[in-house]
Design brief:
four-stranded antiparallel beta sheet, alpha/beta, globular
Length: 319
């Protein structure tokens, strides 16, 4: 349903420098699959989601949705493609037009892409909002009259109005209160049951949320995928040292006997000056001089569906 092949997204920033936000990503999502994309802020997660729908231009590589080349589509073809691929943004407060009623916001895609009008259109919008837990009394309200959680439910309803084949969720709960996050996560969990053929790319920095919602997970660092596998494979047997560091930072009860916290040295390097060799070698606790700082590691297959971009992935085991 979604296929990225050697995707690069670079941004010139002046002074002869270029931000390599996405630096050669290969990724495939099958129909009905939910994949989590995780990593630190600045790793390129959101850029991938926006580039996949051509909301921002890609520098090179190919993007295909349902077998159709996104980078080559234009006009009517691009609009039809986008009607089958929707995105939910991180901040619901800035995602809704403050001058539009909730009914108009959800109906806009239906007006542009279907023949529904009048009572049939209103009934369809009311039905979608009802599925998101919002009664018909919200139809004529404006965004400022809703709470953050209610706004995000409207954004989800708007994205689902056209019954998309692909849904990209860009940290849809990070701007909400913790209690509201739980409600939205339960709503998103229900989507996988109610729409089993819909493919979802869930972008997040919250590993606990990814484990709750996703079947597979890809870990990003400095614009590259450094490990990918099923949730069970990556969480129980992480092979990349960056993945192990991320997992060690997940809060767990003291009685669970968690392994020691792995504290990475230094900050993530600038995407305008990505280190040579393995980009992670400047912070890696097992980096070997003369190898990791000079030779880029390949994506090493470890098991069916599980691979890691590390010279020591075969020998590496979770602590």
């Amino acid at each position: 349903m979604l296929e990225l092949d050697e995707l690069h997204v670079h941004f010139p920033v002046g002074g002869g420098k270029t931000v390599r936000a996405v630096d050669g990503v290969d990724l495939k999502l099958e129909p009905g699959e939910t994949l989590g994309l995780v990593g630190e802020s600045g790793s390129g997660k959101s850029t991938i989601g926006k580039a996949a729908l051509r909301l921002i231009p890609s520098t090179s590589g190919s993007i295909r949705i349902g077998g159709i080349a996104v980078t080559e589509a234009s006009g009517t073809a691009l609009r039809q493609l986008r009607s089958k691929a929707q995105i939910i943004f991180q901040d619901p407060h800035s995602s809704l037009n403050p001058r539009m009623t909730i009914q108009r916001a959800v109906a806009e895609g239906l007006i542009l892409n279907t023949r529904l009008r009048g009572t049939r259109l209103r009934d369809r919008v009311a039905e979608i909002l009802e599925q998101m837990g919002l009664a018909s009394q919200f139809l004529n309200r404006f965004p400022h009259e809703l709470s953050g959680g209610q706004k995000q439910r409207v954004c989800i309803a708007r994205a689902l109005a056209l019954d998309p084949d692909l849904l990209i969720l860009d940290e849809p709960t990070s701007a909400l209160d913790v209690s509201v996050q739980a409600q939205i996560l339960e709503t998103l969990k229900g989507l996988t049951k109610d729409r089993p053929q819909m493919t979802q790319l869930f972008i997040s920095h919250n590993l606990a949320v990814v484990r709750f919602l996703c079947k597979r997970v890809a870990v990003m660092y400095l614009g590259r995928i450094v490990e990918i596998g099923t949730v069970d494979q990556v969480f129980s047997d992480p092979r990349h040292p960056y993945t192990r560091a991320l997992l060690s930072a997940v809060p767990v009860p003291e009685a669970s006997g968690r392994p020691a916290r792995i504290r990475l040295q230094g900050d993530i390097p600038s995407p305008t000056a990505i280190p040579g060799g393995c980009p992670f070698h400047t912070r890696c606790p097992i980096a070997e001089p003369g190898l990791c700082d000079s030779t880029p590691p390949p994506m090493d297959p470890l098991a069916p569906e599980h691979a890691a971009r590390c010279h020591f992935a075969q020998a590496s085991r979770a602590a």
